Input
Amino acid sequence: RSRSSSENVSRVILDPSLILPIPHQTPTPIIPKNQRLAKTSFLAARSIHPGARRAILWGIGGGICIPIVALYLIWLQQKPITPVQLCSCILIMAVPTLWLSQYLGPRVRADRFGISQRFLTWWILWPWDAFVDGRVQFGKISMGKSYKLPEKPIFGRTLTLETLEESDADSLNRLIRAAWNPPAPELVPASVKVQFYWPNTRSVEMTSQQISIVKKSRTIPYRWEEVIYAEIWRREHGHHDFHELRVQFLGQQIQFRNGKFWGAPPAAISAYICMHVDRTRVRDFALSGVSQTVQELDARLARGELRLKKLKKMGGIISATFVVTLLVGNFLGGWPRRAIVIALYLPVAHIYRRKACELERHNRELEEQRTQLNTENC
Output
């Protein structure tokens, strides 16, 4: 490890403002397989927030109750329970219970060796060198508090902090950002080609002269001067890729959503568009962090209100379906199947209610930021 890297890591770990409170009961220290390390002094060992814990307990309860009810229904029909049915019910009960139970204990911890996250009974270490050397990338799961280390196995490749308590997630995120050097942006290619997945099967080709939409052997070319606006939504300012990107022409819009296409990476697409579209027509917004302009704040508010309306509409549809299902007794065939419906409905209703509360709180925070910005401008 270089001297500059060592100094950077030492500065992070020894900075008193970044040290997290030591828990009363520290778990087993991190011992990587390829090293013999002394006992570590822990800076953090954090569990998930209560809302996620309740959802996990609902999931564990459902995984236990549904197989029991299924066996009871077989017994009511006075049929013998075969070994295959019994083993299937035990597997249905055991697998989700064991998988979800890992989230009830400490999930993330930090020490002088790095950041570790738990997978079942093992701890996967992300060393500080990986953050300092730029090997850690922006994550794609959450807004601003998710990271990715491609060299790790698939079950430990993503580090997400948003499942923790908000204060713990913010503290760990500040600790990571103090040591982290984001990877350098990729070089902008000479041309870009993107193919969309079904059902919107079309391709988009970008060159320095034009952007073309190809669908069913029909090509519609547009010059870059014809772009009315390009709206980029990143997870936070500083990300090279995007969560969503819209290019608006007269009577035509191209919408890129991360994960809905293949070909050029999102970072190359956004860089190519920013290079060829006039900067006055580019709206570069972020989904999290502090809004940089009033226009970005208004766009966030409109986006949040639209998401809240969709969420409430979907919650109403699910609740209506639940009520109708309970009223149709002949279809359900008695209280055991109704119990299954209730066990399936309650976790979903809780998740939708929690999401709606988070969106309402987020919209209130945006309103406060807007008032503050207007006051400063005045």
